[in-house]
Design brief:
The structure is a single chain. The protein is mainly beta and about 325 residues long. It has a single domain, classed as 5 Propeller (Tachylectin-2, Chain A), CATH 2.115.10. It is built from four helices and 21 strands. Strands 1, 14, 15, 16, 17, 18, 19, 20 and 21 form a nine-stranded mixed β-sheet that branches. A four-stranded antiparallel β-sheet has the order 2-3-4-5, with no helix packed on it. Strands 6-7-8-9 form a four-stranded antiparallel β-sheet, with no helix packed on it. A hairpin with a 7-residue loop joins strand 16 and strand 17. It is globular and about 55 Å long.
């Protein structure tokens, strides 16, 4: 059904670069002509997330820029710039990411003509307050992904990691969120605990393909898998189909063994342990499992996914578009 590349992982931490020598994961992707451009989340010696840039001509062998292209610059992202998604309008890239201040994660937006020099960074939903999972702060928002073209003369995005919500804009700056979620968790399915938005939606003849992360439980057996749904071509607020099973779930060694962000204690734990500790957690079935996709491309009739594997490396896989709908 889904074919992982035999050369996985395609991006790994670089020991000689202090800003990305621990983890590289959750890469956004955009293809300009024959060049694949990836923005990815990197963690180094100080355990603060930054965004790096890597480029490739074949989608597999990536060259990493030796310095980060987006780093914390204010109180709102002081502890990290995380999990980018990327689209392009005219000659400008629009990048959504999570700004983390150490307490609250919030969806943010910036833009650039070259992915090196950036325009103003803004929070997408500065006044957002909604019922959240796991006692998170009320203004918690993340995982925003912009639709790659206008629909009925409006821009749209989906966001969220308790439900998935929609927002619309006339100018890519001011966003109005919907009153009700577009997608929610489903009892008895792989996404029974909560869901989180994936990469920017993909235009297909059947509708807008929405890839999202489904989580099965809140405890240490938590598994992040990748689900799929369709939004109507002319109305992104209308979900017309949803898979009952995931298209990707963590099964390979590089997908189930790594420095998972959501271990008990998070970064505070990870910065003080080695892989033997992680292996013991896995042996005791106390290590969460995660694949996390922020970037996907439709190449002909094939969807190529780029995903963080075990929050430690980036891998790629392909699936025929028609196969996604065989459920």
């Amino acid at each position: 059904m889904l074919i992982r590349d035999s050369r996985n992982p395609v991006l790994v931490a670089l020991p000689d670069l202090a800003w990305c020598n621990k983890k590289v994961y959750n890469g956004a992707i955009y293809k300009d002509g024959d060049v694949y451009r990836m923005l990815f989340r990197a963690v180094g010696d100080d355990w603060i997330s930054r965004l790096g840039l890597a480029e490739s001509t074949d989608g597999i062998s990536f060259r990493i820029n030796p310095w980060p292209v987006l780093s914390p610059s204010s109180d709102q992202d002081s502890r990290g710039c995380e999990d980018p998604r990327m689209v392009k309008f005219d000659d400008k890239y629009y990048v959504t990411y999570t700004a983390f201040d150490g307490v609250t994660a919030r969806a943010a937006l910036t833009s650039s003509h070259d992915l090196y020099n950036w325009d103003e960074r803004v929070l997408l939903f500065p006044d957002w307050h909604n019922v959240q999972r796991e006692n998170l702060p009320g203004n918690w928002s993340k995982a925003a992904a912009i639709f790659p073209q206008k629909i009925n003369d409006k821009y749209y995005l989906f966001f969220g990691d308790n439900h998935i919500w929609a927002a619309s804009s006339s100018n890519l700056k001011d966003w109005q969120p919907s009153d009700n979620p577009i997608l929610s968790a489903r009892e008895g399915f792989f996404d029974s605990a909560y869901i989180e938005m994936g990469p920017p939606p993909i235009l297909t003849p059947r509708g807008w393909l929405i890839l999202y992360h489904g989580v099965n439980t809140f405890d240490s057996r938590r598994v992040y898998s990748l689900g799929a749904a369709l939004a109507a071509l002319d109305d992104p607020l209308k979900i017309i189909w949803r898979r009952s099973t995931p298209i990707l779930e963590p099964t390979e060694p590089y997908e189930i063994m790594g420095m998972i962000d959501i271990v008990d204690g998070g970064y505070s734990t990870l910065k003080n342990v080695d892989m033997s500790y992680i292996e013991n957690l896995a042996h005791e079935n106390r290590l969460p499992k995660a694949i996390f996709c922020c970037g996907a491309l439709l190449e002909g009739d094939t969807v190529r996914l780029y995903y963080g594997a075990a929050d430690t490396v980036i891998s790629t896989a392909t699936i025929d578009l028609a196969t996604i709908f065989e459920d």
